[in-house]
Amino acid sequence: MTFNVEKLPDTAAIAAVATVRLLVFPDFLLLDATGPVQVFSTANDECRDAGRPPAYRIELLSLHGGPVASCSGVAVMTSPLPSPDAMQGATLLVSGGRGVRAALAEPALLHWVTAAARVARRCASVCTGAFLLAEAGLLAGRRAVTHWQDVDSLRREYPAVQVQDDAIYIKDGPVYTSAGITAGIDLCLSLVEEDLGRAAAVSAAKRLVVYHKRSGGQRQFSAELLAQSSGGGLAQRLTAWLRPRAADDIDVERMAEAMALSARSLHRRLREETGTSPAQLLARVRMETACRLLEAAGCSIKQVARLSGFGTEYKLRRAFAKQLGVLPSEYRERFA
Fold first, then answer.
1. For residue 142, what is the domain's CATH number?
2. Which of 72, 126, 176, 334 has its CA 20 to 30 A from that of 186?
């Protein structure tokens, strides 16, 4: 499994981004670190198969170095934090996990992240690693995302951050953030594509047996998953009812009538099952309808707005910007 050697840039041309350092801390989430490491390692394997030298030098870091246990109990060997100047031109990735709260209370760690970011080519976080970047001041005024369960906390604790609700990953200047856990793989495939080109990223994704750009696009938590979590209950029935009616004028009363419930009971039971409201579920269904239409590339943006229930292009653009951090046209360009 190889890609065209001509598609690869000269090794000297990517020297500034060749070093990838991933920061972990006690009780980090194992896949937040090993997923990204494997993406870059697989890109190196593809380079070797194409007769080229490896593109990346990969290193795990921690505050003091040595073995660091993940929240699963599996430990990884790490190097101690280098001088911030050693991050010149490198890529810094920050893991997430249960231990992020304790990491936020480590002044030396936060100071290093802030200083390293000043000279690094780019900084990125996986999952709740976004909290470390936010605490270090790197996300102020920027768009960012984290695990869907932690979106509200990130927004509440760091009001200067423009938290997106449902994106897989976001690039805002030299700072990247990704959603929960496996989204770190999506993010790092995009970094490989930036460095080595699309053919390299596609080839690495094939070897990893993952989507180069996952089906369903940027959404990290779909209405379908929400419905499945209810085990065939109210959310699944309501989602099935809403899908063919996304373009209709629907309010909570109409949804309640369709489910043979009062509006109050619908709201209460849906909250109990999924933690979301009827209006939020409808918004997810409409967003997914819009995404499917954009991916199919058979409708104009105006038609997509109408058929998905947003009504106007303005409302569609506003919903995409808020939830996914991209415009509908940008989404189509990436996923159609």
1. 3.40.50.880
2. 72
Distance CA 19, CA 200 (A): 17
Give 172's contacts (C-beta < 8 A, 6+ positions apart): 142, 143, 144
Instruction: Determine contact, residues 127/32, Cβ cutoff 8 Å.
Output: yes
Distance CA(210)–CA(219), nearest Å, equals 16
Total domains, the chain: 2
Plot region of 85 (φ>0 → left; ψ -120 to 50 → alpha; else → beta): alpha
Most confidently predicted of 126-130, 271-275, 280-284: 126-130
Dihedral over alpha carbons 122, 157, 319, 292 (to 10 degrees): 60
Query: Range of 140's domain?
Result: 5-208
Pair (165, 307) in one structural domain: no
Element (H, E) at 31: helix 30-49
Q: What is the mean pLDDT of the chain?
A: 88
One domain for residues 148 and 25: yes
The answer to whether residue 215 scores a pLDDT higher than 90 is no
Residue of 203, 206, 212, 268 lying closest to 235 (CA atoms): 268
The answer to pTM > 0.85 is: no
Q: How far apart are CA 207 and CA 187, in angstroms?
A: 16
- Residue 131 falls inside a structural domain: yes
Report yes or no: 274 and 281 within 8 Å, Cβ to Cβ.
yes
323 and 241, same structural domain?
A: yes
CATH of the domain at 241: 1.10.10.60
Dmax over Cα atoms in the chain, in whole Å?
Answer: 66
Say whether both 51 and 119 belong to one domain.
yes
Q: Is there a single domain that holds both residue 176 and residue 136?
A: yes
Is residue 301 predicted with pLDDT exceeding 80? Answer: yes
